[in-house]
């Protein structure tokens, strides 16, 4: 029975949040429990029916809108409104006092927010009101390194 279940095609019954275009129960751990359905004629041993719950990765959002951040950066970035909105008050105050680092910091922030390099300070993703392709930023830190390969000399 378990081997048959392993080869079964399952369907994730999407439970999407209309505001963030992601799963409804996405947690801060960036995992969501979704209800799945096994192929016809297969019953799960845990639930005694053809549905089961599975953890899948998701993008946790805390309500920060990408459009709002971009508009604030373009029109009020010289006053630091974009950084205050995203939760960076120290940089926002610095931009306010220096008129956006003499407008150079405003230009840099427009680029950083547009490419989603700078996101909300709480580590969440932006709420982007459309379905489709998204950006996944890959960062390098002290915990990431290259593993030696067999063909290295």
Automatic annotation (TrEMBL):
This is TM2 domain-containing protein. GO terms for cellular component: membrane. Residues 1-21 form the signal peptide. It holds the Pfam family TM2. The chain crosses the membrane at residues 63-81, 93-114. It is found in: Membrane. It comes from the Eukaryota. The keyword Nucleotide-binding does not apply. InterPro entries: TM2, TM2D1-3-like. It comes from Diploptera punctata. Belongs to the TM2 family. It is a multi-pass membrane protein. Residues 63-111 form the TM2 domain. Coiled coil: none annotated. Keywords: Glycoprotein, Membrane, Signal, Transmembrane, Transmembrane helix.
């Amino acid at each position: 029975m378990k081997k048959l279940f392993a080869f079964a095609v399952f369907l994730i019954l999407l439970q999407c949040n209309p505001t963030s275009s992601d799963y409804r129960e996405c947690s801060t751990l960036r995992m969501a429990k979704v209800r799945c359905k096994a192929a016809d004629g297969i019953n799960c041993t845990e639930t005694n029916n053809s549905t089961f719950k599975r953890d899948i990765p998701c993008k946790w959002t805390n309500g920060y809108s990408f459009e709002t951040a971009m508009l604030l950066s373009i029109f009020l970035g010289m006053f630091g409104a974009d950084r205050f909105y995203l939760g960076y008050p120290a940089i926002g105050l610095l931009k306010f006092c220096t008129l956006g680092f003499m407008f150079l910091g405003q230009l840099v922030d427009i680029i950083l927010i547009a490419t989603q390099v700078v996101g909300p300070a709480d580590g969440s993703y932006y709420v982007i009101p459309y379905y489709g392709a998204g950006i996944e930023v890959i960062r390098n830190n002290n915990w990431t390194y290259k593993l030696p390969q067999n063909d290295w000399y």
